[in-house]
Design a protein that fits this description.
heterodimer; A: mainly alpha; 84% helix; B: mainly alpha; 78% helix; globular
Chain lengths: 218, 241
């Protein structure tokens, strides 16, 4: 499993493109919003938590189809499916690799973009924390979507159509945590919900994703 | 004699062939009666004549949810017992459910404009219906995208299971996110009288009518799917010969 993880990470770094692209997209999005909304602090600050979360969602979406597509093309996915390791484990590891290459950079870069969007400083730690809790669920759900669409030639658009509705609960609670952090309101409830969703997703979705992969590899 | 007998496509076709005229007749009878009777009811003392939209709005909304549940059950039957009719029924139900959701949203907007002063509000009920619509769209798109019918049935089945969990989760997450304008349940077993009898009976009639309407459309569409599958099999045999 560790070998698979290091292989995926090495591929992501050396093949180029995928690794920093999510963060770059996030940066562009954060730079575009003030052009649309206006540079006013009073206009930007209230929407900043939502924009940052939606941006993270979209940035995460960009690289989803790469989770399985390349391995499906060169046949290594078939090898993974027939390997002694359960396919569920392989799916979880691939989602983890996706999170390390996409989710984690987003989490680390988020405060910087928060500054760009005039997010109140009090909300910064909560933004990072909510992303840290929420983005693993995004990667795992994305792996499920990627598993559903892996055999399709033009699955990218369909993938986003399938995956984005699944992101709604995570988005709601993530943005809520950040917003409450900005206002200094009680934060425990959305935090617990967010963590609960992520844990449930991490525990259950690998089975659904592996089932979908098996169908696609038949 | 069990219900699984009808998992056999031939039996299913024979049974539905006899059943269909009755279902169609019942659907027309009940939905026309319900809607027309509803239209002839007196105006509500606060909402005026706009209340009459309820006889389309509520049955459509009810069916929008129930059709998804039916798709969930049909998907489970396909995944567990591999009956093709079940998978095809789930496929046939999805567009009907999407249209019902759209009717509920559209009539709701028409009703909301005079009553709440807005076409759309990010109210929990409205939002969860929009989300339900997105799930329908995704489900239909996945069916359309995959060529091999068995793989498509499997994958959409898995999507339906996961989607059901997330549709429910979104429903309650949305409740957390915003409290809304929409009233609570208009018909409830526990709370007793919420709605006058004048409106209640036509509404029940329309609900039965919409249920039968769904059944009729479902049977027609499932029969079409079965025939399409047979046609594909015949063509494949032709190609091989």
């Amino acid at each position: 499993m560790l070998a698979l993880l290091t292989r995926d990470l090495r591929l992501a770094v050396r093949a180029g493109g995928g690794f920093g692209l999510g963060v770059a997209f996030f940066l562009i999005l954060s730079a575009l919003v003030p052009f649309g909304v206006g540079p006013d602090r009073a206009a930007l600050a209230p929407v900043a938590p939502g924009i940052l979360w939606v941006g993270a969602l979209l940035a995460c979406l960009l690289s989803l189809d790469r989770i399985f597509a390349l391995d499906h093309e060169d046949g290594s996915l078939d090898l993974l499916a027939t390997a002694p390791m359960p396919l569920e484990g392989a799916v979880a590891i691939k989602a983890l690799a996706h999170w390390i290459t996409t989710g984690l950079p987003l989490v680390l870069a988020a405060p910087l973009f928060g500054v760009l969007l005039q997010l109140p400083p009090a909300a910064m730690p909560w933004l990072v924390l909510s992303l840290l809790i929420g983005t693993p669920a995004l990667s795992m759900l994305g792996a499920f979507g990627a598993a559903l669409t892996v055999g399709l030639r033009r699955g990218g658009l369909l993938l986003s159509l399938l995956v984005l509705p699944l992101y709604i609960p995570t988005l709601i609670f993530g943005a809520e945590i950040t917003r409450r952090g900005a206002e200094g309101a009680a934060i425990v409830t959305p935090l617990v919900f967010q963590a609960g969703i992520t844990l449930a997703v991490l525990a259950l979705i690998p089975f659904a994703a592996a089932a979908a992969l098996r169908v696609n590899l038949r | 004699m069990s219900i699984w007998e009808y998992a056999n496509p031939v039996r299913f076709m024979r049974m539905t062939d006899r059943l269909l005229p009755w279902v169609v007749g019942g659907a027309v009878l009940f939905s026309v009666t319900g809607v027309v009777w509803g239209f002839l009811t007196p105006d509500d003392f606060r909402q005026g004549s706009t209340v009459k939209i309820v006889f389309l709005h509520v049955p459509a909304a009810m069916m929008a949810i129930n059709i998804w549940v039916m798709m969930l059950v049909a998907s489970l039957v396909w995944i567990i017992r591999r009956h093709h009719v079940s998978a095809l029924a789930a496929k046939a139900a999805a567009p009907i459910g999407a249209v019902m959701t759209l009717i509920a949203l559209a009539t709701g907007a028409l009703w909301g404009q005079p009553m709440w002063g807005t076409w759309w509000e990010w109210d929990p009920r409205l939002t969860s219906f929009l989300i339900l619509f997105l799930f329908y769209i995704g489900y239909i798109a996945l069916w359309a995208a995959i060529e091999d019918p068995d793989s498509a049935a499997d994958l959409t089945g898995v999507l339906c299971l996961v989607g059901s969990v997330f549709a429910l989760l979104s429903r309650y997450a949305v409740l957390f996110w915003n409290q809304g304008l929409h009233q609570g349940a208009s018909l409830s077993v526990q709370s007793g009288e919420r709605m006058s009898h004048v409106y209640r009976y036509p509404l029940y009639t329309a609900m039965v009518g919409f249920g039968l309407l769904f059944l009729a459309l479902l049977i027609i569409r499932t029969r079409t799917e079965i025939r399409r599958r047979r046609l594909a099999a015949l063509q494949a045999r032709e190609m091989r010969a």
